From TrEMBL:
Role: Catalyzes the isomerization of 5-dehydro-4-deoxy-D-glucuronate to 3-deoxy-D-glycero-2,5-hexodiulosonate.
Protein name: 4-deoxy-L-threo-5-hexosulose-uronate ketol-isomerase
Record's catalysed reaction(s): 5-dehydro-4-deoxy-D-glucuronate = 3-deoxy-D-glycero-2,5-hexodiulosonate
Membership in a protein family: Belongs to the KduI family.
Domain of life: Bacteria
Pathway: Glycan metabolism; pectin degradation; 2-dehydro-3-deoxy-D-gluconate from pectin: step 4/5
UniProt keywords, alphabetically: Isomerase, Metal-binding, Zinc
Signal peptide feature range: none
Spans through the membrane: none
UniProt-listed GO biological process terms: D-galacturonate catabolic process; D-glucuronate catabolic process; pectin catabolic process
Cofactor: record remark: Binds 1 zinc ion per subunit.
Organism for this UniProt entry: Pontibacter diazotrophicus
Cofactors, names only: Zn(2+)
InterPro entries: KduI, KduI/IolB_isomerase, KduI_N, RmlC-like_jellyroll, RmlC_Cupin_sf
Length: 279
């Protein structure tokens, strides 16, 4: 079996107040998401999102179902979003071969029987994916960077000049509840998602990438009046519960992928918290 997985249970904000550093990292940080010739997955009970990474090197990797799903195929009752953060490579969806360049995305709908990740002809192959429960079968669709909704926000003066690329959102591709995109911090900027916010209607997961191996991001989480932080390295992900803010500042500019699941597809549905009100 080429896929390895673990389960993370949902958390109450009152419980997290007592977590020490080790417990915070064990509960919310996904450290080893990419390992050669395997698919790594974490099934979180927060909106039952699956966070995964595939790194085919010597042979293709098939996305097999997980025992906990109790289904014949991975996507019998789920939808899938894939973003390529490595070299140009291909994904097979029920036999159709789709090429994804760096930072391009692919939506795969409920009912697809087979998804296979293929090694790149040259360079490192890294596919990041999120999967959420689905009630309807929408068609497979590739989204290039040109097709994404791209918004430029922030300023160098505030250290948060960034490009937000909305790839798999309802104004670009039809989905049941999954939404994904990526944000690129521009040179000299390190702050993301400020002002911070929460959204009780959905949870979120962050994958930090394009970060030099000797640099880190401090990811801020927790209730707005009871914040905590995690130091995150390149290609590591963070699970963000609905009650938690999700913001970060790095020692170098970087990119990150945001993925959301829940009951609301409105990208702008958020309860903002001004920086001076955070504690």
């Amino acid at each position: 079996m080429s896929i390895s997985y673990s389960i993370r249970h949902a958390t109450h904000p009152n419980d997290s107040k007592s977590y020490d550093t080790a417990k915070l990292r064990e509960t919310f940080l996904i450290e080893n998401l990419f390992q050669e010739n395997t698919i790594q997955a974490v099934y979180t009970m927060h909106d039952r999102l699956i966070v995964g990474g595939a790194q085919p090197v010597e042979q293709p990797l098939k996305l097999e179902t997980l025992p906990t799903l109790r289904s014949e195929h991975f996507l019998d009752r789920r939808e899938l979003g894939i973003i390529n953060i490595g070299a140009e490579s291909t994904v097979s969806v029920d036999g159709d071969v789709i090429t994804l360049a760096n930072k391009e995305a692919l939506y795969v709908g409920k009912g697809v029987k087979e998804v296979v990740f293929h090694p790149a002809a040259s360079g490192k192959t890294l596919f990041y994916f999120n999967s959420a429960p689905a009630h309807h079968a929408y068609p497979t669709k590739k989204v290039s960077l040109d097709e994404a909704e791209t918004v430029e926000m922030g300023s160098l003066e505030n250290s948060n000049h960034r490009l937000i690329r909305k790839l798999l959102i309802n104004s670009v591709v039809e989905t049941c509840q999954l939404q994904m995109g990526l944000t690129e911090l521009q040179k000299g900027s390190v702050w993301n998602t400020m002002p911070a916010h929460t959204h009780d209607r959905r949870m979120e997961a962050y994958l930090y990438f394009d970060l030099p191996e000797d640099q880190v991001v401090s990811h801020f989480m927790g209730e707005p009046q009871e914040t905590r932080h995690l130091f995150v390295k390149n290609n590591q992900a963070v699970i963000s519960p609905p009650w938690s803010i999700h913001s970060g500042a790095g020692t170098y500019n970087y990119s990150f992928i945001w993925g959301m699941a829940g009951e609301n597809l409105d990208y702008n549905d958020m309860d903002k918290v001004q920086p001076v009100d955070l504690k």
